[in-house]
Amino acid sequence: MTMTNYIQFTADDIDTATGSGLISTIDRDLDIKVTPFDSANENAPTHRVYAKSPRGHDIEVGGIWKKLNAEKRPYYQLSIKRLGFNANLGRYPGQDDIALQAIIEWEPRT
Fold this sequence. Notes:
Layout: E1 6-9, E2 19-25, E3 28-36, E4 47-52, E5 58-68, E6 74-80, E7 85-91, E8 100-106
Antiparallel strand pairs: 1-2, 1-8, 2-3, 3-4, 4-5, 5-6, 6-7, 7-8
InterPro entries: DUF736 (IPR007948)
Pfam families: DUF736
């Protein structure tokens, strides 16, 4: 199976795990890697998101934030501001691996 729009974390504890994945849209394919980000700021992301520049350099392109839903259960949001790309992370379809997260794109509300 060819997977697109995912992050494979190195551990089930996503808060502290590194990961790598792919974001594919109609106009781009981004190989990404994510690294945990530790900050005392409660509004800071849990992870920084990196992609490769055309010459192969790792550049920071976005972040992942931990949020709470209406039932106070945690979930994660990914944002790449420069591209206007926003997504939630969730269990990848047909998989039981908690560390494999689908990137589920959504449009921001105006």
